Amino acid sequence: MKKLFYILQKEFIQVFRDKAMLPIIFIVPAVQLLVLSYTATFEIKQVRLVVVDQDLSVASRELISKFSGSSFYSIIDQVVDYSEAAEFLERGKADQVVVIEPDFGRLLVTEKTAEVQVITDAINGSAASLMNAYATNIIIDYNREIMVKLTSGQAVSLPIHIQPLFWYNPELNYITFMVPGILVLLVTIIALFLGSMNLVKEKEIGTIEQINVTPIKKYQFIAGKLIPFWLIANIDLAIGLLLSYFVFKIPVIGSLWLLFGVASIYLLAVLSIGLVISTLSNTMQQAMFISWFFLVIFILLSGLFTPIESMPHWAQILDYGNPVAYFIKINRMIMLKGSGWSDIQENVGILTVFAIVMFTFAIARYRKTS
Amino acid sequence: MKTLPAFIRFNQISKHFGEVKALQYVSLELAEGELMGFIGPDGAGKTTLLRIFTSLMLPDSGSVTLGELDVVTDYKKIRQIVGYMPGRFSLYPDLTVEENLHFYARIFNTSLKQNYHLIRDIYGQIEPFKKRRAGDLSGGMKQKLALSCALIHHPRVLVLDEPTTGVDAVSRMEFWVLLKSMQQQGITILVSTPYMDEAAQCDRVALMDHGKVMVVERPSVIEDNYPGQLFSVKTNQMYRLLAELEAYPEVKHVFRFGEVIHMTFNSSKEEEIVPLIKDYLKQRNHEQISVSRIKPGIEDCFLSMMETPQKA
Fold first, then answer.
1. In B, which residues are within 8 Å of A370 by CB distance?
2. Which stretches of chain A sit within 8 Å of chain B by CB?
3. Does the fold of domain B227-295 match that of domain B6-223?
4. Which residue of A has its CA nearest to B48?
């Protein structure tokens, strides 16, 4: 135990002597949290709309005013010719075009039906479906109004009335959804990168030669490499939670103890992956590339940006081996829903198994002799 | 020397890296308290042999024992009693001199205070810089710190891999004085070096080349056993001298040796050969010709052994 203490003492001296380390450990994650949380959003606030009004009637103006009244839309031009509007789309100057047919107003009265065409720039698929949903909602809204008019004031009620309620995030605030995930991302980066770099650094500058001829035991050396970054990543998580409480007003609804308990297990898994990477590589550059490779896959598959449920089947299967996905899920549950142990025990169990397997593998991989 | 009981025994050690045979059936013995030099060019297998001894590397075949201990099975005990100074500076450059020394003392369950007497001569020289980071030290000071760290746990055997490579001439001489004083304290020393001139400092030297030990002997014995007579030749036309001497009929070996050329002949007596060579060179328009018999050094012995095929 005493030796472990001396090893840890040495590691901490080294970490904090490096002038670049303090900002990397404490400032970079804070900046990332603030920047990413605001920007990593799929909400589209200003859809640039071009309206092709071929009718120029009262009815068409009413419909257009619905769009211009919506906070999601800004009408950048109103034209009569369809081809003009198409050019806006082609040049990327508009996101959506609404075409109102020439007899729109008259048909509504005589035929009780008329057509509106919505064209959306669908290069970004998820944005396109959102814009389409916005437009559809506005048109449905307008529909309901004119039905009242057309039936000369009689109140019309649809047989099934849908009243949506959004739980855990009533304002449908995207930041609320993103922050717990981004917190996971930050501690993962710290643990994976710093963890994998540290041991490789000893290899690269040759200090491991001298260590290897000492009676330091394998577990002492590895523990000396894991514990500092395990602590640092937990501190980063704490800083992140404070920031999200004070800046984003997102409190942790569930138990903090539970959250840090799970984080500790998770970090052991990630640090062990880092350790395995560092036993596989001989230079910091190699370790960096391998870490990036895994990190990018872990993050893209994690459900941070896109729901896992909408991924292809094979990707969902891959996600069974993705610790980041488990922890993001657990973290969202604890932070936003206040889930307790019984809700998350299955996922925590998987994480625990993952941590044990990776840790054992890392120790087995690390050898003093070659 | 041979009468002392063997303390360290290398027995038929082989090691290969892919196609390269780094060591081929190397056997040799050291007595306790001996200072053994491993001498040979780069790639001779010196570092590999020392790394196997320090339990950093496993031999493909063969065994190494230190007293009763086997370096493979008893590596934990070996690490307690062996001090190793790798060829490359391997201490923490971001820790200070003092921190490095304390760290290595503590992980060997000792303290700087307890073993200060061991390293006083060496550490004393760098102690004024103890607050300086190891990475900021000069080459000679780094080497002294590395030696201090290798000695801090009072090892019975000290292994040094090319400790004097890249160190200036004065520091090299100082270093050998330090090694001798370590030997006085009863420490057995294994040291490798590419510098032939350092061979004379060792009790015995093992001349190595291409993974084989060619000879293990006292330096003076190696020099005395030089086969044949060695001549040193110098003229004002050094550029073509080597090729012309190689063309001389009776010649056995010709080596460029700094400013002169060293050569041996198959037969012929000293008295006869000197005038013959002088005439031969005069005919080829050489001037300021000097030919003299010289006493062979370790390097001459080494070069002559490299030329003659060795029994495996």
1. 56-58
2. 2-3, 6-7, 10, 13-14, 17-18, 205-210, 212-216, 368-370
3. no
4. A370
Those residues whose C-beta lies under 8 Å from the C-beta of residue B137, and which sit 6 or more positions away, are: B97, B126, B129, B145
Q: State the smallest CA–CA distance between residue A206 and chain B in angstroms.
A: 5
**Average confidence (pLDDT) over A38-51:** 78
Q: Do B82 and A7 touch (CB under 8 A)?
A: no
Does residue B289 contact residue B278 with C-beta atoms inside 8 Å? yes
pLDDT recorded at residue B298: 80
Q: What's the ipTM? A: 0.78
Contact flag B56-A209 (C-beta cutoff 8 Å): yes
Q: List CB contacts (< 8 A) between B99 and chain A.
A: 10, 13
CB A328 within 8 A of CB A344: no
Tell me the per-residue pLDDT of A88-100, one tens digit each, with 9 for 90 and over. Answer: 888 888 999 999 9
Q: Give the distance from residue A203's alpha carbon to the nearest chain B alpha carbon, in angstroms.
A: 10
Phi, psi of B3 (to 5 degrees): -75, -25
CB environment B57-96: b (16+ within 10 A), e (fewer): bebeebebbbbebbbeebbebbbbebbbbbbebbbbbbbb
CA-based nearest residue to B54, from A211, A352, A265: A211
Indicate yes or no: CB of B106 within 8 angstroms of CB of A3: yes
Q: What topology does CATH give the domain B227-295? A: Alpha-Beta Plaits (3.30.70)
> Exposed, middle or buried, B194 (CB in 10 Å: 0-12/13-18/19+)?
middle
Chain A partners of B54 at a C-beta cutoff of 8 Å? 213
CB contact under 8 A, B149 and A210: yes
Regarding the domain delimited by B6-223, which CATH topology (the fold level of the hierarchy) does it fall under? Rossmann fold (3.40.50)
Q: Tens of pLDDT along B198-237?
A: 888 899 999 898 888 888 888 888 888 887 788 888 888 7
Q: Please give, rounded to a whole number of angstroms, the shortest distance from the CA of B109 to a CA of chain A.
A: 8
**Is residue B68 within 8 Å of B140, Cβ to Cβ?**
no
Give chain A's domains with CATH numbers: 14-40+171-365 (no CATH), 47-150 (3.40.1710.10)
- List, as one string, the DSSP characters of A97-137: EEEE-TTHHHHHHHTS---EEEEE--SSHHHHHHHHHHHHH
Domain ranges of chain B: 6-223, 227-295
Low-confidence winner among A61-65, A311-315, B242-246 (lowest mean pLDDT): B242-246
CB contact under 8 A, B91 and A215: no
**Which of B54, B71, B107 has the highest number of chain A CBs within 10 A, making it the mutation to test binding with A?**
B107
Q: What is the DSSP string of B145-160?
A: HHHHHHHTT--SEEEE
d(C-alpha B304, C-alpha B225), whole Å: 11
Q: Do A214 and B107 touch (CB under 8 A)?
A: yes
d(CA B311, CA A287): 46
